[in-house]
Design goal:
There is one protein chain. With about 120 residues, this protein is of the alpha+beta class. It has one domain: Alpha-Beta Plaits, CATH 3.30.70. Helices cover about 35% and strands about 15% of the residues. A two-stranded antiparallel ribbon has the order 1-4. It has a two-stranded antiparallel sheet with strand order 2-3.
Length: about 120
């Protein structure tokens, strides 16, 4: 299930981690190194034969890039917040998970992306 704190961000990182779920093996290397515990394992709901994978709570991600560096499967990309919606929409994963959580994941990405674009425009 998608997680989220619902608290507004005070600072938007230069990049946020997005898992390419189809490349993720669920090895949990990223979970072990995340300093803010924003990565969570997604079990194969109602389909235990499906391989597990991880997902990232974008509202908690601080953009440290440790997960990307430690992932042995090259399944995590650091994405600029102004490009977040497209990356989240294209990340893949099992259909039941995407059907259940996709809209919420994209909504969170859209909120962060909008804030990043506003901040970028305010600097001009």
């Amino acid at each position: 299930m998608a997680k989220g704190t619902g608290k507004p961000r005070k600072k938007i990182p230069r990049a946020l981690a997005v898992v390419r779920a189809d490349n993720c093996t669920g090895c949990e290397a990223c979970i072990e190194v995340c300093p803010v515990d924003c990565i969570y394992k997604v079990p194969g709901e109602d389909q235990p034969h499906l391989q597990s994978f991880v997902d990232i709570d974008l509202e908690r991600c601080i953009g440290c890039d440790l997960c990307e560096r430690w992932c042995p499967w090259d399944a995590i990309d650091m994405v600029p917040p102004t490009q977040l919606v497209a990356a989240v929409a294209d990340k893949g994963g099992p259909e039941p998970y995407l059907e259940k959580n996709g809209a919420q994941l994209i909504a969170v990405a859209q909120t962060i992306q909008d804030l990043a674009i506003e901040a970028q425009q305010a600097k001009k």
